Amino acid sequence: MTDTTPPFRLLPGAPDSPVLLHVPHSSREIPPDVREGILLGDEELALELDHITDSHTAEIAAVAAAAAGAAPWRFVNRLSRLVVDPERFPDEREEMLSVGMGAVYTRTTHRAALRSEGFDAGPLLDRYFAPYARAMTDVVAERLAVAGRVVIVDVHSYPTGPLPYELHGSGPRPPVCLGTDAFHTPPALLDAARRAFGGFGVGTDSPFAGTYVPLEHYGRDPRVSALMVEIRRDLYMSEPGGPAGPGAEALGLALAALVDAVA
In terms of CB atoms within 10 Å, which of 9, 113, 176, 244 comes out highest? Predict the structure, then answer.
């Protein structure tokens, strides 16, 4: 029987909040039928999930939602990015295709084979990627209708040292990296994030750059602003896939400060 549960969770915030925390890479869950198409053994897969999962970022977002003056809305991927990566372009526009990590990964973080040669990504895109993208588009449209604007804050993490799949891993790796977009990241949003995370140390667009905006609004609607928050994992957890430490709560409170500043 096919699982009909949506591949995401929408957690409502304050009715008039324009802030949407997007947590796309925090889960390790892989449906059994999708697991069958992955070449790795169980131990190898567990290690790959340690490396590729933004562990505990959903919990950091939850701390922020509880601490903020007006709770943000949260859109959380309930499945691993090894099922589909909802933040990739689903076509040739995606630069990560060059290392086998487009919307459906065929290579691991260490560039080993993840799926068989010639794997047909279409069914996974239809079953998981497209519904996720539609739902995010609908949430943004609904927040625009209610609040008149939307601030998407992407919550990610990244390893202390670069992994072989990274295309831009040779640059600085600050404690908190803020990813920006020339159209969707206004200076006031970036300044607010620098203040909120200033106690940790902040850099911009290295080792990861850009933001996530639904394609219907991307590059078109200035009412949709966006920022990516990439947290270096040694700030809050033991790497590669260990438990969260006390830094997770402090980061959640910093994220709450950003939510309050832009809400």
Answer: 176
Is the sign of the CA dihedral 252, 258, 262, 263 positive or negative?
A: positive
Distance in angstroms (rounded) separating the CA atoms of residues 219 and 128 = 24
Give me the DSSP letters along 165-215.
T-TTTTS---SEEEE--TTT--HHHHHHHHHHTTTT-EEESSS-------T
What number of CA atoms fall less than 13 Å from residue 192's CA on the CB side? 20
Report which of 67, 74, 55 is spatially closest to residue 9, judged by C-alpha positions: 74
The helices-and-strands tally (H runs, E runs) of the chain is 7, 7
Q: What is the DSSP letter of 96?
A: G
pTM of the model: 0.96
Distance CA 202, CA 71 (A): 24
Mean pLDDT of the chain: 96
The conformational region for residue 72 under phi > 0 = left, psi -120 to 50 = alpha, else beta, is beta
Q: How far apart are CA 216 and CA 137, in angstroms?
A: 7
β-bridge partners, 225: 151
| 177-249-227-56 Cα dihedral, nearest 10 degrees | 80
Q: Across the chain, where does the E strand assignment appear?
A: 8-11, 19-23, 73-77, 150-158, 176-179, 202-204, 224-232
pLDDT in tens, 213-250: 999 999 999 999 999 999 999 999 999 999 999 999 99
* Structure tokens that stand for 179 in this block: 């990813």
Q: What percent of the chain has pLDDT over 90?
A: 95
Question: What span, in angstroms and rounded, lies between the C-alpha atoms of 25 and 263?
Answer: 24
